[in-house]
Amino acid sequence: MSSIAPLFVRELGYALFESRGKGRFLALSEAPAWLLALWPSIPSPPDTIDLAEKSPFLENFLDEAHAFWASALAGECRSEIWVESTPAGGEVPLQAVALRLQAKPVLALHSPDLQFREHVRTLQTARNSLLDHERLLREIQKKEILLHCIVHDLSQPLSVMHVVLDCLAEDGMDEKKKRFLELGKNASEQQESMIREVLQIFSADLRATLDAEKGVGSAPDLRASANAVLTSLGPAFEAKKVRLSLAASQSANGNWLVRGEESRLRRIFSNLLENALRYSPPDSQVSITLELQDEFCQASVDDQGPGLPPDLRPSQIFGLFSKGTQASGKVGLGMYFCRITVERWGGSIGCASLPEKGARFWFRLPRAFATPAEQNKSNAANKLPSAATPPQRPLAQGPLRILLAEDQDEIRLLTTHQLERNGHTVTAVANGKEAFDAAAKAEFDVVLLDEQMPIVGGVEAVHKIHRASANSSKRPYLIALTGNNTDEDRERLLSEGFDFVLAKPFRLSALNDLFHLTAKAAPSPPPSRLQSQAPPSAALPAGLLERVGGDEKLLHQMIRTFLNDMPKRISSLHQQIRRKNSHQIASLAHAIHGSAAIFGAPEASAFARQLQNLGRDCDFQRSAQVFQLLKEEIAKLEQNLRGYVRHDRSSGSRTPRKPRRVAPKRSRK
Amino acid sequence: MIQKKICMLGSFAVGKTSLVRRYVESIYSDKYQTTVGVKIVKKVVQSRDSEVTLVLWDIYGEDDFQKMRWSSFNGASGFLLVADGTRRATFDKALELEQKSREQVGLLPFVFVINKNDRVDEWEFDSSMDDQIAAKGWTTLRSSAKTGENVEQAFSLLLGKIMG
After folding, report:
1. Which of A398, A594, B10, B159 has the most CB atoms at less than 10 Å from its CB?
2. SS3 category, B81
3. B2-163, which class in CATH?
4. Is the Cβ pair A124, B39 closer than 8 Å?
């Protein structure tokens, strides 16, 4: 090498050594600064240095380098980067390259300091992001659990409270007690509104997650997921001498695609199998069975353990914080996770003791024929084998034949009581299967189905009813009762085949609103004395009393509700327009449109409809203009209704009322 | 003097560098600093009646950004397989790496360390994973580089296995 070349190599930051055998190396270039900082005593030629002695990493790499020099391979042999510490405590990143120069075995060392720092920075950022992402996913899962906790655990007692208060209101009581009752109802409504608000916040967060999930890829394969988990848990089963098997029915023709997401589906299998293993005695069997059930795939995990604890209901087993005795510092969320995940994908989950011994845990998921987005785009009639004729809403002039499916005993009892007291005929059942059976045996005008029920949930039941009535000219009007009452949930349930969605807690007034809103004009009853005596200023909108079947009490109730709710709705709508929240604007305008239509206010109703569309189109400027017009129309309607109520109070003592159907007559003080 | 090469193996951010620093320098930092490349430190310990120099190879954690080069394992006497008890995915990664190690470098003594035991509230490892580990017959310890819990013991256990 010429005398300039070694200097040039040093300036480039390289140190070149020629291998002289027996681990000795001869320096071919001037030592760069980083090398002197690391190993100050580099001998000058003709002395040689034992590099392996200097660095354990080099010692390791030199084996590879010697193998390369001894081979006929062309090119070079490059080490990965390693870090050496200087005597002064600094760190020097290094990389070694074995190559041949003029047929001599040469080792080039260099310190890629700048690239290394850049690489570290990039990698640090990427890994921090990954860790943040993992943390975020865990947080979202916690929120998801909290969301369901709020909906199910807080809403259920509230539902009971509402219905009890409504029932009490129908009994005769003095004014003082009535006021107390009103206070109680207002407080429970306030609480419900708070729960809903929290729900909306969580729902917005979750929507982002779910959207991300949709983008991940195709629907998971139930059998492939079961197989994967079976393989990974195989050793654990072997260790406990528990046999594990998987059987799938042939009817699926290899298509086991279900709605959901792969990693969570595996987690569900994993949780169920781990649970089965925990309770399985040695030399027993755990079997996974996959079956096709119409539009659903069902997976069952059977064990030969002691079966379910007799004092625990399945709902408790899938409940929050249901902890096993072997808890290892981990919160008991396994079964709860299974339930909330399966339900969110439109499926159901359950468990039961087997007749002889053991337990069966099963879950059922909708088969993935199309993505949810595709389903939403398609026509409802194409999605389900629905009746040829569009759903008919029953007319409201007579009592309805109602089938109620609700798994909560107290709510079922009270809702039945409330409906019956209002003249409807009610058949009450505890799950979707019983609902389907009842619907097959008798004719109903309306079927009220709780969304989440054991054995067969509301969604599955509604699919079955659609299929059963595919060749019929008539089918019942299908209403979902749901605690998941966000707009997204409503859209989802409508796309599943429900005709309408009612939020839980159930309110009779909501059912009445629905049918009075859409009822065809009933034959006019004889003119009401009240209406004929009312002065023009207190006149009711034409046909309103007829629309409620001449039931003045119901009308009063509706007006009170309207006057109570509407200011809040208008205020919320104004707020959402200022916040430019298109979703909420459309939703609130939709609700106001319905209410205004009930009270025969066509202008208000039309403005509300216009606002609903503007909200959807994100046209906030025009939304604000139309809102002012709507507000004025609503104010007129409120004034009119207040005038009517005042007049009715003042003339009420002179007007003979229709006797109550059930409640005892009461005397006025 | 006897020298034994020990490698640290595991997913990224499980605490491999923290365990080494706690063991060698008795220090710990909460700040996560990713390891790029390989860092080698030594520690002289007493084993039975002789002194042994442990040469600890702190190898970067494998992920999508950095793949392991198994040549770093040449001449290794054993390894610590590390997972993070608060991240379930690191358990799967540990299973995968242990299997790869057998394919790449053959059977080596190792100890499975489930790190971050100071954060049990966030623990994601459950009894089924314990069952899986027990089924494999792994020597396992729960450790905390932060508090020093079981750090010394993990290396001692490994050295004991290496020395036979």
Report:
1. B10
2. strand
3. alpha beta
4. no
The domain made up of A4-111 is a member of CATH 2.30.30: no
Q: How would you label A22-60 residue by residue, b for 16+ Cβ within 10 Å and e otherwise?
A: eeebbbbbbbbebbebbbeebeeeeebbebbebbbbbbb
From the list B36, B55, B136, the residue facing A123 with the nearest CB is: B36
Could you report the per-residue pLDDT of B85-109, keeping only the tens digit for each? 999 889 989 999 999 999 999 999 9
Strand ranges (DSSP E) for A359-476? 359-366, 401-405, 425-429, 446-450
CB contact under 8 Å between B34 and A124, yes or no, is yes
The yes or no reply on domain A521-658 and CATH 1.20.120 is: yes
Res. A284 pLDDT band, cuts 50 70 90: very high
Tell me how far CA of residue A187 lies from CA of A183, A184, A326, A469, A543, in angstroms: 6, 5, 42, 43, 34
Q: Domain A370-503 is of which CATH architecture?
A: 3-Layer(aba) Sandwich (3.40)
- Whole-angstrom Cα distance, residue A354 to residue A308? 9
Highest mean pLDDT among A193-197, A214-218, A362-366: A362-366
Complete edge-to-edge strand list for the sheet that includes strand A359-366: A243-248, A285-293, A296-302, A359-366, A348-353
Dist. CA A645–CA A506, nearest whole Å: 26
| Cβ pair A274, A334 in contact under 8 A | yes
The ipTM (two decimal places) reads: 0.89
User: Is A239 in CB contact (< 8 Å) with chain B?
Assistant: yes
For an interface test with B, the pick among A38, A54, A57, A68 (most B C-beta atoms closer than 10 Å) comes out as A57
